[in-house]
Amino acid sequence: MLVDTVRTRLGSALFSRVAGPEGPVNRARIHDTPGPRWFAPDSPVRTVHGDASMFIGGIAALLLQSLHPLAMAAVAGHSGYKGDPWGRLQRTSTFLAVTTFGTEEHAQHAVDEVRAVHARIRGTAPDGRPYRADDPHLLTWVYTAEAYCFLGAHQRFGAHPLGEEGSNRYVAEAARVARALGAEDAPTDLPALRRRLTTYRPELHATPAACEAARFLLLTPPLPWVARPAYGVLAANAVGLLPRWARRELLLPHIPVVEDTFVRLGGHGMTRAIRWAMRPPA
Q: Which helix (H) or strand (E) holds 123?
């Protein structure tokens, strides 16, 4: 049928963008290799990370993470996010998939690889402060921003939003990966996650590099023009997830009536469309 053909083509195009040329091989390895996993099949972290709402949560997390000057300096200096944005996305999505759904052995191997890369990244931020990618304090910030945005996107746009218990379990499960990467005292429930976000607040502000990254993500994404309207809907809803102070730092507008109606409806429509397109064939 024509509908099935359209869904298959759209799903394949999305998957290839997110997972890269090795996506099918990696997917088979992640899901088909027998062995114990870090997380059970019904775990909240699998519910959140396996949902289309991650397309919105991922953009929001990048925007929020950019507000730590040292974390942003490391990204700007070493990640190549402009020269190879899709490669960076594919590496990140593969890491999330392996640690969420893969075997314990594969998950630990993925963590070890990232830690080895982090150990080599050193530098000096524009304000003169030294940074290192394996700094436990910075790793905790990255985890805090990701967990806040991934969970927030899921609660707003996910197919099966979590209750209070499930939300707390999600934070605890995400913290397991953060600790494996070297984060310090990672929050393990939602109230603690919110408190930790507040404690980082005095360290956070928008540097020129953060504003440049926001412009790249929101205004000039590496996409063909035909795909930009759909991406714009996702990006607008990612902005809507950010704390009010974060939006002010990045000079992002806040129009409550429009965001709470038209923008949010568009976000629901886009995540449903992605979910439909990427649903495995029956």
A: strand 122-124
Supply the angle between the helices 136-157 and 164-181 in degrees, to the nearest 10: 150
Phi-psi region of 128 (alpha: psi -120 to 50; beta: other; left: phi over 0): left
Phi, psi of 124 (to 5 degrees): -125, 125
Percent of the chain with pLDDT over 70: 98
Q: For 162-200, how does the pLDDT look when each residue is reduced to its tens digit (9 = 90+)?
A: 999 999 999 999 999 999 999 999 999 999 999 999 999
What pTM was estimated for this model as a whole?
0.95
**CB of 100 within 8 A of CB of 26?**
no
The structure tokens 């997830």 sit at 241
pLDDT at 282: 53
Q: Which residues contact 263 (CB under 8 A, 6 or more apart)?
A: 233, 236, 237, 240
CB under 8 Å to 107, separation ≥6 — which residues?
Answer: 37, 38, 98, 99, 177
Tell me which amino acid residue 187 is: P
50-62: average pLDDT: 97
Whole-angstrom distance, CA of residue 258 vs CA of residue 236 = 11
pLDDT level of residue 5 (50, 70, 90 thresholds): confident
Tell me how far apart the alpha carbons of residues 244 and 254 are, in angstroms, rounded to a whole number.
Answer: 8
Task: For tokens 């893969």, name the residue.
Answer: 102
